[in-house]
């Protein structure tokens, strides 16, 4: 099979730690180039990760005719510009979440990629892991009855790193952008529908450029079902999802971040007791790369179309408005 040659726009930690190793472990892709705003940093990164080519500018990488696709792990406020420029250069795009700063930006990005005829995906790696197909199968079987609610969490404490890009308001900083998007996207995926309204309460920190360092919210779905969630960057680490039904519930202890060498199973609780569902130990970043690779190589549709990112941004827009204005926002 022909390999997709990937270029990486930026030297972010998520690229080093997870996405580049994932692409390298995939069946369809190989990382062929990396670019930074300075050639020295790009060369150091390339040497560390054994990437053949290093560029001192993003423009140089986009001009490389051997690069088929790019991964964009840049700060959130740069996603729109470099997605559009990559599409115009004929490169397929995997863009880190959140896709944009708002739904309007996301719409323009999707339209640019459609016009250029390139594949475009948002980097929600967890959705490509078979755990979520298995979870949806349990729900479809009727084992836990009708869904009555979902609760999701994603928190960590990095508050001491005051210079972090997550703490720059103009750059799209804040916990809703960074980790709140995970339980929000998961609820939409599991329920297969869009929420109707959002109410969010948040801690905006003067020490961190007034970004939301902690947020708790409720999304209203049809038939009285809701997602309750909390997300934060100044709280103890949690990474969970619970789906509550009329006859049982599903607990996912490591809902979004998984480790290949640890058990990432989920649990089904009913009147018959607790049942542990064994999950394959797979690299979800490699699975993500292969889904995109197959779409590029064979035309296979992505499991999550680019338009899904626009819908997710609409929800995020409502959450941020609710948190800042202290009111319920209809979507």
Q: Describe it for me?
A:
The structure is a single chain. By secondary structure, the protein is an alpha/beta fold. The chain has 2 domains: 4-126 and 286-302, Rossmann fold, CATH 3.40.50; 127-283 and 313-330, Dihydrodipicolinate Reductase, domain 2 (2-Layer Sandwich), CATH 3.30.360. It has helices at 13-25, 39-49, 58-62, 79-88, 103-116, 131-141, 175-191, 284-298, 307-325; strands at 4-9, 29-35, 53-55, 69-72, 92-96, 120-123, 147-157, 197-205, 211-220, 226-232, 234-245, 248-252, 266-270, 273-277, 329-330. The chain starts with a strand and ends with a strand. The mean pLDDT is 96.
**Beta strand count:** 15
Count the DSSP helices.
9
Strand order of the largest sheet: 14-13-12-11-7-10-9-8-15
**Any idea of the CATH class of the largest domain?**
Alpha Beta
Overall geometry: globular
> Largest sheet, if any?
9 strands, mixed
The chain-level structural class is alpha/beta
Mean pLDDT: 96
Q: Please identify which CATH superfamily of the largest domain we are dealing with.
A: Dihydrodipicolinate Reductase, domain 2
What is the element string, with H for helices and E for strands? EHEHEHEHEHEHEHEEEEEEEHHE
Strand fraction band?
A: 25-35%
Total number of domains: 2
CATH architecture of the largest domain: 2-Layer Sandwich
State the CATH topology of the largest domain: Dihydrodipicolinate Reductase, domain 2
Low-confidence stretches: none
| Overall helicity | 25-40%
Pfam family, one: GFO_IDH_MocA
Family: Belongs to the Gfo/Idh/MocA family.
Domain GFO/IDH/MocA-like oxidoreductase: 133-251
Protein name: Dehydrogenase
């Amino acid at each position: 099979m022909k390999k997709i040659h990937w270029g990486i726009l930026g030297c972010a930690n998520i690229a080093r730690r997870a996405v580049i190793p994932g692409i390298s472990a995939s069946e369809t892709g190989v990382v062929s180039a990396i670019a930074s705003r300075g050639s020295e940093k790009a060369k150091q990164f390339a040497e560390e990760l054994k990437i053949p080519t290093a560029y001192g500018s993003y423009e140089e990488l986009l001009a490389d005719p051997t690069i088929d696709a790019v991964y964009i792990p840049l700060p959130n406020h740069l996603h729109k510009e470099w997605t559009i420029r990559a599409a115009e250069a004929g490169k397929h795009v995997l863009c880190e979440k959140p896709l944009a700063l708002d739904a309007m930006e996301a719409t323009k990005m999707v339209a640019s990629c459609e016009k250029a005829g390139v594949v475009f995906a948002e980097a929600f790696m967890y959705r490509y892991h078979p755990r979520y197909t298995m979870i949806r199968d349990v729900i479809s079987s009727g084992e836990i009855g009708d869904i009555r609610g979902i609760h999701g969490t994603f928190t960590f404490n990095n508050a001491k790193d005051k210079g972090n890009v997550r703490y720059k308001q103009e750059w799209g900083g804040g916990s809703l952008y960074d980790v709140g998007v995970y339980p929000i996207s998961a609820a939409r995926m599991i329920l297969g529908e869009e929420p109707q309204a959002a109410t969010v309460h948040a801690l905006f920190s003067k020490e961190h450029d007034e970004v939301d360092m902690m947020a708790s919210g409720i999304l209203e779905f049809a038939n009285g079902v809701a997602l309750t969630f909390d997300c934060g960057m100044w709280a103890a680490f949690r990474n969970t999802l619970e789906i509550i039904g009329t006859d049982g519930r599903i607990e996912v202890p490591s809902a979004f971040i998984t480790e290949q060498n640890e058990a990432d199973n989920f649990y089904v609780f009913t009147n018959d007791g607790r049942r542990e569902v064994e999950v394959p130990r797979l690299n979800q970043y490699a699975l993500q790369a292969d889904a995109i690779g197959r779409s590029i190589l064979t035309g296979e549709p992505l499991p999550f179309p680019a338009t899904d990112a626009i819908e997710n941004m609409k929800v995020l827009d409502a959450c941020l408005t609710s948190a800042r204005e202290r009111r319920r926002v209809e979507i």
